[in-house]
Amino acid sequence: MKLNIDELTIFGGKPVFEYALHVGRPNIGNRQKFTERVADILDRKWLTNGGKYVQEFERQLEHLMGVKHCIAICNATVALEIAIRALGMKGEVIVPSFTFIATAHALQWQEITPVFCDIDPETHNLDPRQVERMITPRTTGIIGVHVWGRACDTDALGEIAHRRNLRLLFDAAHAFACTSKGQMIGGFGDAEVFSFHGTKFFNTLEGGAVVTNDDSLANKIRLMKNFGFTNYDQTGYVGINGKMNEVSAAMGLTNLESLDEFIGVNRHNYQFYQTLLAGLDGVSLIAFSDVEKFNYQYVVLEIDAQITGVTRDDLVAILHAENILARRYFFPGCHQMEPYRSYFPHSGLLLPQTERLTQRVLCLPTGTAVGEMEIRQICGLIRLTLENSEEIKRRFTR
Ligand SMILES: *Cc1c(COP(=O)(O)O)cnc(C)c1O
């Protein structure tokens, strides 16, 4: 443990960690189970196109989430694109800017305009009152993102969508195995999309899913993800190749067997961070309600530089020098990235809470690759930095 700031790597010390500690290191379940499944896939010589493992994976997810239909897809970005198209969204769709860029790109890729909407600073999710203000005659839908696994205000958004005749999709990439009002996320809105990318706490290498209780929507998505084929020789509409392969499904089935363990580790890490960061002025760890289920896959701090005296960006630079690769999710906000930045150079004026939050957030490493020893070191460094903020401000230039 570094005890004085001259030992910090930015001032010439040696990094605390020899190897980089990443946000989003993969959680990998039982290796033998996985390789047995892969061997079976090779023996059966059925690699993709609705094979046994994909089907079993879909049925297990339907059971877990209590939904009628799960369609496994090759990744969440394509899953979003397919769901958006199948729902008939066009013109303008309201989305948060405080999200991973794929939420916006999935619209723009199909020439649909993402209209960025501000968030509630408490929940980090779409503010329904702002959503209402962004609706125009061209608006066809709303995509809410359950940021950090904390659900959007599904009731308020559902009410607006119903009253204004808009489609409602949720990007639930963060929210696998989480609940809202006691109900598993997956059954809200017209459909919900999950990501099983390698950096998510539950992965299928690459992968995603669309989940819905709507029979005809599910049927459409099942065809669309396979070029729109309705039988061997005919297509019903334009489609894409969005299929999940058998090896990914085998990884998914294997990781499902360790789901409780992954969540347990994440919860323990979160609580340990909470204990060690308690009482540190200007640093707050985002909170999770006791009455819902969460996956705790993101350990998210908000840094108030007015109080800490050290900016979020300086803190990130100090941690990076120590090989702690904390991330500024979601910085700088989708509206500040191309092509949106050029298309709508003034959209930030309508996004004051988003702009403020993107300057404050910081995600710390967690998951099965991180233990108490690492968390002690990380929190010790944050404490050391803030306790010496005056001297750091004077001596440290990035
Ligand atoms: C990870 C993520 C995606 C994209 O998922 P992929 O499976 O990598 O395509 C979309 N939205 C959000 C909010 C994400 O975090």
Explain the layout of strands and helices:
Elements (H helix, E strand, L loop, with lengths): L20 E2 L8 H14 L7 H14 L3 E5 L2 H11 L5 E5 L5 H7 L4 E5 L10 H7 L4 E7 L8 H10 L3 E5 L7 E2 L2 E2 L6 E5 L12 E5 L2 H10 L21 H11 L2 H19 L5 E3 L13 E5 L1 H4 L3 H10 L2 E2 L14 H4 L8 H7 L2 E4 L7 H16 L1 H7 L3
Parallel strand pairs: 1-13, 3-4, 3-5, 5-6, 6-9
Antiparallel strand pairs: 2-10, 7-8, 9-10, 11-12, 12-14
Pyridoxal-5'-phosphate binds next to α3 and α4.
Quickly count the helices: 15
Radius of gyration: 22 Å
Q: What's the pLDDT, averaged over the residues?
A: 97
Low-confidence stretches: none
Describe this structure in words.
The protein has about 400 residues and is of the alpha/beta class. The protein has two domains: about 5-25 and about 260-325 and about 365-395, Aspartate Aminotransferase, domain 1 (Alpha-Beta Complex); about 30-255, Type I PLP-dependent aspartate aminotransferase-like (Major domain) (Aspartate Aminotransferase, domain 2, 3-Layer(aba) Sandwich). Helix content is about 40%, strand content about 15%. It has 15 helices and 14 strands. The chain has helices at about 30-45, 50-65, 75-85, 100-110, 130-135, 155-165, 215-225, 245-255, 260-275, 305-310, 310-320, 340-345, 350-360, 370-385, 390-395, and strands spanning about 20, 70-75, 90-95, 115, 140-145, 165-170, 180, 185, 190-195, 210, 285, 300-305, 325, 360-365. The strands form four sheets. A seven-stranded mixed sheet has the order 2-10-9-6-5-3-4, with helices on both faces. Strand 7 and strand 8 (about 185) form a beta hairpin. The radius of gyration is 22 Å and the shape is globular. The mean pLDDT is about 95. The structure holds pyridoxal-5'-phosphate. Pyridoxal-5'-phosphate binds next to helix 3 and helix 4.
